[in-house]
Amino acid sequence: MDKNRRIALIAKIAFLAILLLSLNLRKHTFRMPHFSGDQHHYVGLAFKLDTKGISGYNLRGIELRKAAKHRYLFFFEPSEEKGWVLRALAQANITYYDQPFHHIPFVFPVAIMLSHRIFAGSEPYYVVYIPDWVEIVRSNPTSVGLRNIRIDPAVLGKQFYSVIVPLVSSIILIVLVYLLAKQLYGNELVSLIAMFLMAISPVDILSSQKLWADDMTAMFTVLAVLMYILAVDKNKSILAFIGGISCGLGAITKQNGAFIVFVIVIWHFIANADKLLKKETFFHTVFDKNLILFGIGAVLSSVYWFAKITSVYGDPIYRPHPSNIDRAATIDWFRMVGKRPRYVYLFGIPYLNPLFALAYISPFWLWIDKRNLRKTTLLIIWMAVFFYIFQIYLGGAGKEHRYMLPSYAAFAILGGYVADQIRIFIDKLIGFRAGTMLLVVALLLSAFWCIPIGLEELFCNSALILRPF
Q1: CA-to-CA distance for 111 and 300, rounded, in angstroms?
Q2: Checking CA distances to 163, which of 22, 41, 216, 411 falls within 20 to 30 Å?
């Protein structure tokens, strides 16, 4: 076997190994309860879509019932009154969820509904709920939590239809990170490093094993960027249209998915700045075919949702949260999140993924590596746009690490790219493949740091990662 074939074989084996690692780290979702926080809201919304259609897209009239003979198995059924979900929220003085049309976009609940039709058929919308989970977690070391809890496999199997949705979204996201890195840099090692960093991300380990929309949002976001880059590189405008559709779907999965539009537009004009200065190319650049088709795709795939919510509330980005919710609510969640420093993302992201810190020094390579200038610029803009929106424009609002997940692909790819550049430099400077060995050690240390954090938070049934603050 010649050298090139051997390298290709090793790359394929590494790809499969990372994929298997990703699945292994996320397999716990099948034996964990999925109810706390807003997880049961998504199942309830899927239930309402299935039984009432879009006109019943709200949390009203959802009753929680315990399944006979099963300790931790519950299901939803219709209620003529407000129902259990809204009553439970009202007890915590959280009343803004009681509205005729739910403000959170519906793609993720639709996905759960479709998955239920495929895997559960005529069965009720089951959820696995451990009422005393807080006491169980507190009685165990933080590294144990719910790890050792035993639930009947037959009971756990009832929630397969819901847990498979974020899990599959996460695995697709990890593969898309690899493909995007490969398209941007044409470098197998950079692509594998980026894929690995995404796979071991504590935030994604947690979010992929919760009934949250974040992984699906990130998946659509990365797919949108990949399709747009392919359209530019291969001069196939239909791919830009597909990318726009993916962007629109991301926006109506969770609103932060829409921010990728700013990334694409800003990058287009910066990457083509020289053409804007020329009279003969100015018009063509401003009204670029790929950019227009991307926008059309985004509008077509999201217009129904935005038209619907505008018709109800008069605002396409309606957010009903009262400003004093941290004082009004009787639970500590809002106060706890509100007290986090606004720079939680700036320092928290590299704390949780140490090699993501390399993305912060990536601008130096705009001068060092001119060949990849345009592609590196895209990733830096991607990272900067999300930082600006969450750190400055929104003032750190929300302050949950998972809100930045749609930008993690940029961190992972830039981290992989800079790590490889440092490896090459050290290999040349010292020899003996010192840079390569250092890279392997760095990746292993990252895994030993990241994975325990993600799993510990998962087994403690955490709703967010309160690290480093």
Answers
A1: 19
A2: 411
Residue 464 in any domain: the answer is no
Tell me 79's DSSP state. -
Closest CA to 197 of 448, 425, 411, 432: 411
Where does a domain end: 147, 162, 177? 162
State pLDDT tens for residues 153-204: 999 999 999 999 999 999 999 999 999 999 999 999 999 999 999 999 999 9
Tokens of 267: 């990058």
Cα 91 vs. chain centroid, distance in angstroms?
A: 30
Element (H, E) at 62: strand 62-66
Task: Kindly report the backbone phi and psi dihedral angles of residue 124, in degrees, each rounded to the nearest multiple of 5, phi listed first.
Answer: -65, 170
- How crowded is residue 209: how many other Cβ atoms within 10 Å of its Cβ? 26
| Rounded to 5°, angle at Cα 405 from 231 and 440 | 90
DSSP designation for 322: -
What order of strands is seen across the sheet that includes strand 125-128?
62-66, 73-78, 125-128
Measured CA to CA, the distance from residue 397 to residue 399 in angstroms comes to 5
In a domain, 121, yes or no: yes
Instruction: State how many domains the chain has.
Output: 2
Q: How does pLDDT run across 343-394, given as a tens digit for each residue? A: 899 999 999 999 999 999 999 998 988 899 999 999 999 999 999 998 887 7
In angstroms, rounded to a whole number, what is the distance separating the alpha carbons of residues 182 and 188? Answer: 6
Q: Which amino acid is at 147?
A: R
How far CA 34 is from CA of 41, 95, 103, 129, 332, in Å, comes to 11, 23, 22, 7, 21
pLDDT for res 103: 93
**Are 382 and 329 a contacting pair, CB within 8 Å?**
no
Q: What is the pTM of this model?
A: 0.95
Q: Do 23 and 35 belong together in one domain?
A: no
Contact 62, 74 (CB under 8 A): no
CB-based contact 108:213 (threshold 8 Å): yes
- Per the CB < 8 A criterion, the answer to whether 207 and 66 are in contact is no
Contact by Cβ (8 Å): 354, 446: yes
C-alpha to C-alpha distance for 48 and 61, rounded to whole angstroms: 9
d(CA 343, CA 340): 8
Measured at the alpha carbon of residue 260, what is the angle toward residues 275 and 26, in degrees to the nearest 5? 140
State how far the Cα of 270 lies from the Cα of 268, in Å rounded to an integer.
6
Residues with Cβ within 8 Å of residue 230, at least 6 apart in sequence: 183, 236, 239, 243
